[in-house]
């Protein structure tokens, strides 16, 4: 039988790599087959992630976690269910409370609420008679439950929305205290998030030629929808150009991703959709509109002769953006979901711009009030098949 140390980076290792990149952690009690798969390829996975991205692979008897930190923080990297900074503060207070609990120990929601009030930072404080404060707690508790760091024994925290004295009994799983990553230095020594990110990367002194730059580039490729050049002096993008063949061979031999490099744009793609990953386009109806809008943008750019900026972005006014949305609606709207067929043009434009920003296909220019359509949007295009178009046209006659 082949020993674990002799196993190479085979198809099973690629599958394990996908799991680690997509999931926060793999819990043994919830996904024993995935857990075992990663354990069997532990050696090659640890070496690859540490060398290329500077990530630690933690293998525990209850879980496996790849500690992923970005090269640069982006808005979409927050907890999507949270709606207010207060949600994050309450969640951190919950983690601090759990630090004092043993595995399988139980606690009541009322006891937790008292502790969170005492731990909550700032002068504003918390008041559970306030509806919005209770909603923040509910969001934090539901997220904690989804992540497996608390377990409901009896009750439903949703009822806390309507009654601040409602009681819920929780259990503390063994993985609870491992959710928050540990740092080699006291966090009080840092004055900004950038300092924390910098400390997390390799301490290689040659920032522009050593391991730190490689890790920074790989993190951008793996964690972001796209990587754009920041100008002629962007050493990270220069690294991509100089080592593109080596990077392509490395990524495509260790994952199912395909590496694509253009003048000012680099990204990882899949030849076909993989349910395991969060990919564009996903199942949201708005993403169909994104693809169709990209087709309209291409035509309008050619017809109107709009000049592309040096960074590859296409500047358009907000008025033109909404006008292009109306053109898109006139051409493709018959196939949209009822939600978007019933929306106003301005509402669709807002939803469309939000998802374009999320996927780094657009950005707002704060100086000119223009919308900058980014190179990734121009790379995509989508339209209905010819048989659908024919049927739609026949239906209107």
In angstroms, what is the radius of gyration? Answer: 24 Å
Our count of helices gives 16
Query: Uncertain runs with pLDDT below 50, 5 residues or more?
Result: 1-6, 392-397
- Which whole number gives the mean pLDDT? 86
Spatial arrangement of strands, main beta sheet: 1-3-2
DSSP strand count: 12
Largest sheet: 3 strands, antiparallel
Order of helices and strands: HEHHEEHEHHEEHHEHHEEHEHHHEEHH
The helix fraction, in percent, is 40-55%
Give the overall shape, derived from the CA principal axes.
Answer: globular
Which secondary-structure class do the elements indicate? mainly alpha
Beta-strand share of residues: 5-15%
- Ends apart, CA distance between termini: 69 Å
Describe the protein in words.
By secondary structure, this protein is mainly α. Helix content is 46%, strand content 10%. It has 16 helices and twelve strands. The strands form four sheets. It has a three-stranded antiparallel sheet with strand order 1-3-2. Strands 4-6-5 form a three-stranded antiparallel sheet. Strands 7-9-8 form a three-stranded antiparallel sheet. Helix 4 crosses helix 6 and helix 11 crosses helix 14. The longest helix has 20 residues. It is globular, with a radius of gyration of 24 Å. The protein starts with 10 loop residues before the first helix and ends with a helix. The N terminus and C terminus are likely disordered.
Question: Which tags fit this structure?
Answer:
single chain, mainly alpha, disordered C terminus, disordered N terminus, globular, 12 strands, 397 residues
Concise structural overview:
By secondary structure, the protein is mainly α.
């Amino acid at each position: 039988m082949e020993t674990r140390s002799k196993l190479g980076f085979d198809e099973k290792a690629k599958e394990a790599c996908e799991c680690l990149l997509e999931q926060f952690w793999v819990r043994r009690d919830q996904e024993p087959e995935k857990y075992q798969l990663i354990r069997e390829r532990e050696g090659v996975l640890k070496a690859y992630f540490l060398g290329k991205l500077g990530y630690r692979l933690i293998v525990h008897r209850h879980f496996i976690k790849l500690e992923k930190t970005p090269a640069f923080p982006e808005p979409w990297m927050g907890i999507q269910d949270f709606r207010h900074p207060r949600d994050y503060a309450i969640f951190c207070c919950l983690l601090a409370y759990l630090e004092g609990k043993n595995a399988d120990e139980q606690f009541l929601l009322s006891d937790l609420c008292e502790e969170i009030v005492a731990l909550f930072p700032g002068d504003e404080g918390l008041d559970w008679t306030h509806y919005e404060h209770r909603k923040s707690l509910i969001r934090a508790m539901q997220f904690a439950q989804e992540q497996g760091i608390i377990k409901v024994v009896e009750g439903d925290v949703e009822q806390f929305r309507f009654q601040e004295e409602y009681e819920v009994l929780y259990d503390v799983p063994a993985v609870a205290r491992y959710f928050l990553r540990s740092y080699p230095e006291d966090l009080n020594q840092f004055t900004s998030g950038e300092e924390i990110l910098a400390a997390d990367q390799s301490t290689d002194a040659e920032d522009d030629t050593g391991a730190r730059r490689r890790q920074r580039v790989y993190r951008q490729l793996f964690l972001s929808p796209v990587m754009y050049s920041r100008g002629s002096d962007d050493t990270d993008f220069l690294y991509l150009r100089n080592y593109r063949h080596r990077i392509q061979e490395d990524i495509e031999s260790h994952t199912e991703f395909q590496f694509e490099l253009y003048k000012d744009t680099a990204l990882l793609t899949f030849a076909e959709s993989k349910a395991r990953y969060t990919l564009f386009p996903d199942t949201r109806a708005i993403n169909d509109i994104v693809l169709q809008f990209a087709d309209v943008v291409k035509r309008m750019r050619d017809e109107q002769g709009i000049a592309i900026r040096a960074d590859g972005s296409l500047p358009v006014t907000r008025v033109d953006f909404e006008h292009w949305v109306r053109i898109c609606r006139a051409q493709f709207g018959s196939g949209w979901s009822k939600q978007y067929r019933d929306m106003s043009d301005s509402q669709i434009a807002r939803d469309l711009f939000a998802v374009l920003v999320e996927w780094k296909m657009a950005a707002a220019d704060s100086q000119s009030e223009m919308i900058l359509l980014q190179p990734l949007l121009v790379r995509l295009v989508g339209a209905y098949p010819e048989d659908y178009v024919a049927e739609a046209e026949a239906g209107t006659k």
